[in-house]
Amino acid sequence: MSMNINHTHNAMEHPLASPIWLRWGALAAGLALVAWSFGWQSYPLYVMTQVLIYGIAIMGLNLLSGYTGQVSLGHSAFFALGAYAAAVLSHHLGWPLYVGVPAAAVLCFVAGFLFGFPALRLPMLYLALSTFAVAVVTPQALKWKQIEWLTGGVQGIILEKPTFPGMLADRADWAIMMCVAACALAAFLLAQRILGTQFGRLVDASRDQPLAAAAGGLNIPVIRTQMFGLSAAFTGLAGALSVVAGQFVSPESFPFLLSVSLLVGSFVGGVRSLWGAFLGAAFIVLTPNGAESLSKSAPWMIFGFALLAVVFLAPNGLSGWITHAWRSRANS
Amino acid sequence: MQAFLHQIASGLAAGGIYASLAVALVLIYRCTASVNFAQGELAMFSTYMSWALVQAGASWWAAFAIVVVGSFLLGLALDRVIFQPLRHKPVLSVVAASIALLIILNSLAGWLFGHELQEFATPFGGVLSHAEPFLSAHEAGILLATVVELLAVFVFFRFARFGLAMRAVAVNPSSAELVGINTNKVLAVGWGLAAVAGAVAGLMAAPIVFLEPSMMMSPLIYALAGALLGGIASPVGAVAGGFAIGVLENLLGAYVVGNDLKLTCIMLLIIAVLVVRPSGIFGKSVQVRV
Fold first, then answer.
1. Which residues cross the membrane (chain B) (predicted)?
2. ipTM, 2 decimals?
3. pTM for the full model?
4. Spans of all domains in chain B
């Protein structure tokens, strides 16, 4: 079993160095997309923003499940925490969102760290159980009467749409999308950087051979707790950005099913990939658009079967497929 | 005092539901070393089946019998099709598969039967009769049904040959295989029995919470808390834990935090148990080797 894990792991972790023309090509394509999207209507901008937001959240989940080998069903709670933190800081304290959003991410890091501290000392299943309970409880806890003055209770909090100076004033949706895109890029580069360091290799060791690594003197709970905090910070950042994009939070926006969507996106995109997170996000954002015309239940049915299919047929998800195709083309 | 005793008695009745579901969780834990997050939806689905049979004109007990057999077969089928192939895969895959099953069953029930609340009959007489001093007829029925079910489980594991084989597989699958036990068959039956225990829990819960696709979400959390409290590897512990959680939930709701925060308190309890004594009250800690 462990052989198998190592094999797939190596295949994912060390892709061929991308050729120079590819990097410049990607940069040019990105800039072209930025210019082109300036003329988009608000709906495509909205969809793109959602994909980027969920992509950041799923990157957070991947840091945990793909790279640390732990599973969380409770990331809807961190998404909610980030969203509420940003909304409360802006609504009650009048902090501008460009301060409130990073503050929300930091708060989620602390919350994740504190939560992971006890839970990650136990076998992985127990983390799944405790996070599952947290996710189910989140909407209920947010409605708690004693904190209604803070959270707005069932009604939630409505914020004003951020304003932008100059020629961006009329293109606020586009400007919001660009801010979210900038955050997504920064989060991606940060995650890539962290995984590439010495710490990233310790994370690998703690996942692949936890007992041996512990016997070799690695403090596995500390590594896992740091990764859990980082994972929570990413997902909390996504939650805070969802407030920037939607200017609204309410308890019902963060059901257990949000955790399930993130999990589905994570698996479909590929748990061991950072850019795959955005493929998974596109999947969970776009599927309901097409499928809801069939039936209210259809998107979830599709999510369920997609998750099963990935578990059985493509353990590395869409990004795994693409990497595989790319490598075999490059090798031939 | 009367009111207090009433709260404890109806807590025990609710605990009966959680105990059944917790037994199902423990059976699956012993088969897969993972938790079946779809256990609640599986119970919900069986309950809808029985509802549909009653709507179609079957008597309650006939529907019950058919659903018990049907759930057993469904459990066998799920094991064969989904979980047997995942037996030697990482826990992550097993958890993902059970989450997939959860959303498939949930949306399938919504598709087939709608998302509206449906009333579900109880065979034991009224649900909300206040005539009795301590328990409504349905609650008394729940307690009776749970006791019968748990006795059956106990007898099965203690005296039946197959039950002994299941215990052997749970303790050490590879050694069990060496002495000639067909592990796959044993684990499949474990899935079947878990599905039956879940169905019983669903049928008992439905008259109280009404029938809808997400009806078993909270009971599943309570059952998980019960199973963890008693020890997730121990059926006896799961039963005791289920009853304890039922009573605790009722007392918390009635005297301490009200209905809004019961679930949150139970969540905190789950985390506290995991921190203080992860193997539960009746569980033994397990050691691993490099």
1. 12-38, 58-78, 90-114, 134-157, 188-210, 222-248, 254-276
2. 0.86
3. 0.89
4. 1-122+133-215
